[in-house]
Design a protein that fits this description.
Blueprint lengths: L2 E5 L4 H12 L3 E6 L24 E5 L5 H11 L3 E4 L6 H6 L1 H20 L6 E7 L22 H20 L2 E7 L2 E2 L8 H13 L6 E3 L5 E2 L2 E2 H12 L7 E3 L5 E2 H11 L8 E3 L17 H7 L7 H17 L3
Parallel strand pairs: 1-2, 1-4, 2-3, 4-5, 5-6, 6-11, 7-10, 8-13
Antiparallel strand pairs: 9-12
The structure holds NADP nicotinamide-adenine-dinucleotide phosphate and ligand G4F.
The site of NADP nicotinamide-adenine-dinucleotide phosphate has 25 residues, from helix 1 and strand 5.
Length: 328
């Protein structure tokens, strides 16, 4: 049985990736942070009573800021594949917590790469890079060759991790891949990212539980895809003969305003009657437009997005409506 180690397993992507790898027959090990509660809503359904060495799903306490703990876990587990998804992943919050964000999102990756340099078995490494690295780009659709112009502490940290991943691959012949993923969403998306914030509000407004949602910049354009399809691409990258970097995106960009119109439209409401503005949701600088060109992933991995923008919005609104009906 192949062993995969996932950092960030409690997050949106980590939870989908864990499900996907278990279905593929992997033994999945996840690193979780110590919290005051054991509530881990995205992965609670994966728990089994079997906590023996042969269980398909095992969790370990750890933190990307603690290299000795991660090293001990890697030596104990001896994973065949490592997916580094752990991050302080909120761009606006990275302006409030730049040092912490860099410690986890940049140095956390370097700590892992340094551990992998010294192990004596072959392991494949996936780094969760981001389209935020393109930042204030002037290129209409961004691919693997497009220069980076990061616009936040988060994006700077991700650029650092991307280049270290490439550097360790070149320097030490490591099987290390950087997946440059554009925004991907789902009903498991954190509630303070704009798509989920909107779909949750739409459901609550439709049910009469509130009347407004407060937002920041509505002009930003993003390339939004469906998360369960994006985690498949991560796995595909590690199954290739040679390690490489890939853009994963839909190739279609929409503004926050368009997302609002679509989401409120799903329940027969006009967004302009329910949206107010607060500058606290603005960033010191924002990224105006991101739109990815995933032709390399299509040609080499055979990966293509399947869920279109309208379907994505609909499925997120439906899930938030259903959750309310079930009293969640
Ligand atoms: P997410 O939902 O915010 O999940 C982040 C995960 O990282 C959580 O499991 C979190 O644990 C964990 N984490 C945070 N700080 C940590 C630390 N110090 N030590 C160990 N674990 C820590 O993010 P996501 O949307 O699944 O994204 C996964 C990865 O892809 C991230 O690296 C993100 O930056 C990157 N990415 C995401 C997108 C996107 O659109 N979703 C696009 C490009 C790249 P807790 O549950 O304990 O907080
Ligand atoms: O949903 P967002 O917070 O996502 P953002 O900043 O694009 O970052 C996400 O995608 C990246 C990939 O490109 C990931 F690397 C990163 O980890 C994260 O998953 O904001 C999207 C846009 C921004 O322009 C923001 O200014 O929506 C705008 N926005 C407007 N009002 C808002 C709000 N964003 C948030 N979070 N909350 C608002 O009230």
């Amino acid at each position: 049985m192949k062993k995969a180690l996932i950092t960030g397993i409690t997050g949106q992507d980590g939870s989908y990736l864990a499900e996907f790898l278990i279905q593929k027959g992997y033994q999945v090990h996840g690193i979780v942070r110590r919290n005051s509660t054991l509530f881990r809503s995205r992965i609670d359904h994966l728990h089994t009573v079997d906590e023996s060495e042969t269980s398909s799903f095992l969790l370990h306490y750890g933190d990307s800021s603690d290299g000795t703990n991660i090293a001990r876990l890697i030596h104990q587990i001896r994973p065949d594949e490592i997916y580094n998804l752990a991050a302080q992943s909120h761009v606006r919050i990275s302006f409030d917590m730049p040092i912490y964000t860099v410690d986890v999102d940049a140095l956390g990756t370097l700590r892992l790469l340094e551990i992998l340099r010294s192990i004596d078995w072959p392991t494949k490494f996936y780094q969760a890079s981001s389209s935020e690295m393109y930042g204030q780009t002037t290129v209409a659709t961004q691919n693997e060759e497009t220069p980076f112009h990061p616009r936040s502490p988060y994006a700077c940290a991700k650029v650092y991790s991307h280049y270290q991943t490439v550097n360790y691959r070149d320097s030490y012949d490591m099987f290390a891949c950087s997946g440059i993923l554009f925004n991907h969403e789902s009903p498991r998306r954190g509630e303070n990212f704009v798509t989920r914030k909107i779909t949750k509000a739409v459901a609550e407004i439709k049910k009469g539980l509130r009347d407004t949602v407060v937002l920041g910049n509505l002009d930003a354009r993003r390339d939004w895809g469906y998360a369960p399809e994006y985690i498949e691409a991560m796995w595909m990258m590690l199954q290739q003969e040679k390690p490489d970097d890939y853009v994963i995106a839909t190739g279609e960009a929409h503004s926050v305003r368009e997302f609002l119109a679509e989401a409120f439209g799903c329940v027969g409401l006009n967004w302009e009657d329910h949206v107010t503005f607060d500058e606290k949701f603005l960033r010191p600088v924002d990224v105006d437009m991101l739109c990815g060109d995933a032709s390399k992933a299509k040609a080499k991995l055979g990966w293509e997005p399947r869920t279109k923008f309208k379907q994505l919005v609909q499925l997120m609104v439906d899930a938030d409506m259903a959750a309310l009906e079930q009293g969640q």
